[in-house]
Specification:
Blueprint lengths: L1 H22 L6 H31 L4 E4 L5 E5 L7 E6 L4 E9 L3 E8 L7 E9 L5 E10 L18 E10 L8 E12 L2 E11 L9 E6 L4 E4 L11 E14 L8 E11 L5 H24 L2 H7 L8 H9 L1
C-alpha cells in the first residue's frame, strides 16, 4: 500500500511540474495550451489517482484466507462431552484438520456447542449454568487448526504481505456477568528450520478481558501485536511458514467468583486472515488531498489561473482575460 501511495504522489508531482513549466511558456504555443489544460484538470486527476490507489490497496489487492466458515456440522453436549475433542477434516481454504472442545476444568459446564445447526454457518455455544468446584474456575472453548505438518514448511497466511491480521467475526458474545477473568487469544505456531532440525515457535495475541456484545462485531488481531509465547524467538517474525493456528475463547481463567448462573452465549461465524483497512494515515492523506484539490478548484474559479493572468498581460496577445475565462468555461 505504501508503494502505491508513493507512486501516486510521484505522478501528481510530475503533473504539477508540467503545469508550472507551462505557466511560464509563451502564450499561443503548444506547451502553453497543453499546460493550461493540465493545470485546469490536475485537481481532478489527483482525486482519481488517490481514489484508485485506495480502492486497489484496500480491496482488489487483498488475499483473504478463510480459516473456518463453520459449515461442516457437529454437536458437543455438556457436561457429557466436557473436555472431549471432536476432530473434523477439510476445513477452510487450506483443508485444515480442526479439533474443537469445551473445557471446564473445575466448573462443570451445562449446555452445548454446535456447528451449522442452531444457526447456519456458525459455531454456537450456550452455557446457561455451571456446577462449581472450588477453588478457581477455568472454562474455555478451544479451536485448533492444523494447517500443515512437519517436515512441511507450513503455509503463508500473509500471502506475501497482502494480509496483516487474523479476524474473528461474531454475531454474539455475552454472559450474565462482566467476566473480568476472561480472555480471547489467537496463537500461531511457525515452522523454523535450524540446520537439519525442524523446530517451531509460537506467537500469541490476546484480548483481555473478552468484549461482550449482543450485536455482530469483529475482533482483529494484527500481525504486529503477536508476541513470543513458546520456543526460541524468530528474527523478523511474520506469518509465513505457519503450521497451526489456535483460537481460544476463555470465559474463566482462574476466576474465583465465576457464578453458577453463567448465561454464556457465543455465536462465531467466521475466522479468517485478511487486511485491515482503511489505515487512519491513508484516510487522512486522501481527505487532505481532496480538500487541497477543492481549494485549488475554488481559487481557479474565483480568481482565474496564473496562466490566464499571464496571457491577459502579454503585449500583442489577442485574447483578453475575460475571453480566456469564457473559453475555459466553455
Amino acid at each position: 500500500m505504501v508503494g502505491n501511495l508513493r507512486a501516486s504522489i510521484t505522478l501528481l508531482l510530475w503533473f504539477r511540474r508540467l503545469a508550472f513549466v507551462a505557466d511560464a511558456a509563451r502564450p499561443g504555443s503548444s506547451t502553453f495550451a497543453l499546460g493550461r489544460a493540465v493545470l485546469r484538470e490536475w485537481r481532478l486527476i489527483s482525486v482519481a489517482v488517490f481514489a484508485a490507489t485506495v480502492l486497489f490497496a484496500s480491496g482488489f489487492a487483498w488475499a483473504d484466507i478463510v480459516i473456518d466458515d463453520f459449515v461442516d456440522g457437529l454437536r458437543i453436549d455438556l457436561p457429557e462431552q466436557n473436555t472431549e475433542r471432536v476432530v473434523s477434516q477439510s476445513i477452510g481454504d487450506f483443508s485444515a484438520l480442526r479439533s474443537v472442545a469445551v473445557n471446564g476444568l473445575r466448573p462443570i459446564p451445562n449446555g452445548f456447542l454446535d456447528i451449522d445447526q442452531t444457526q447456519p454457518s456458525a459455531l454456537t455455544v450456550e452455557i446457561p449454568t455451571s456446577t462449581q468446584i472450588p477453588p478457581d474456575g477455568i472454562l474455555n472453548v478451544s479451536l485448533v487448526y492444523s494447517l500443515a505438518t512437519l517436515p512441511s514448511n507450513g503455509v503463508d497466511l500473509g500471502e506475501g504481505g497482502k494480509n496483516n491480521a487474523v479476524i474473528l467475526e461474531f454475531d454474539r458474545l455475552t454472559a450474565d456477568s462482566p467476566l473480568s477473568h476472561s480472555r480471547i487469544y489467537v496463537l500461531a505456531m511457525r515452522h523454523r528450520q535450524a540446520g537439519s532440525i525442524n523446530t517451531s515457535s509460537s506467537y500469541i495475541s490476546t484480548y483481555r478481558p473478552m468484549p461482550q456484545s449482543s450485536h455482530p462485531f469483529s475482533l482483529a488481531f494484527p500481525f504486529d501485536t503477536f508476541q513470543l509465547a513458546r520456543g526460541a524467538p524468530i528474527p523478523d517474525f511474520d506469518f509465513s511458514s505457519i503450521l497451526e493456528l489456535h483460537v481460544l475463547v476463555e470465559p474463566a481463567l482462574l476466576d474465583p467468583g465465576l457464578p453458577e448462573q453463567l448465561g454464556f452465549h457465543m455465536i462465531l461465524t467466521q475466522i479468517r486472515v485478511d487486511h485491515i483497512v482503511p489505515e487512519p494515515r491513508t484516510v487522512s492523506l486522501c481527505a487532505l488531498s481532496m480538500m487541497l484539490c477543492f481549494a485549488r478548484y475554488r481559487r481557479f474559479e474565483v480568481h482565474g489561473s496564473s496562466i490566464d493572468r499571464c496571457a491577459a498581460n502579454v503585449p500583442g496577445h489577442s485574447l483578453s482575460f475575460a475571453d480566456l475565462k469564457k473559453e475555459r468555461l466553455s
